Amino acid sequence: MNDSIDINLIIRPCYVLDTATYCKGKPICEYSNRILPMDLFICEYRVDKSAKIFTRLPKSKHNGCNMKSYCFDNYIEKLSIKRDYQ
User: Fold this and answer.
1) Per-residue pLDDT tens over the stretch 24-71
2) For the chain, give me the number of helices (H) and strands (E)?
3) Mean pLDDT, the chain, as a whole number?
4) Structure confidence at residue 2 (pLDDT)
5) 48 lies in a domain?
6) Residue 4 lies in a domain
7) Cα-Cα end-to-end distance for the chain
8) In 10 A of CB 26, how many CB atoms?
9) Is position 79 within any domain?
């Protein structure tokens, strides 16, 4: 089962990164130089809606992000992620 939405509801692109890439920096958008923090997401798990389970994505299944200087903005200091289970 695929979820679909109307194309007219799309406002702007979002980016889903693995945790290591998220901590290093963010992609540079071709439409504007700035990507808003609310447009960046981290994905560590695969969701199986029919079985209602979460499984951790192995590194081999991560889709790579081009981290060349012309399309990726590295942070000066690498971020550290703190989980908040509230």
Assistant:
1) 888 887 766 677 888 888 887 777 777 677 777 777 666 677 788 888
2) 1, 6
3) 79
4) 66
5) yes
6) no
7) 30
8) 21
9) no
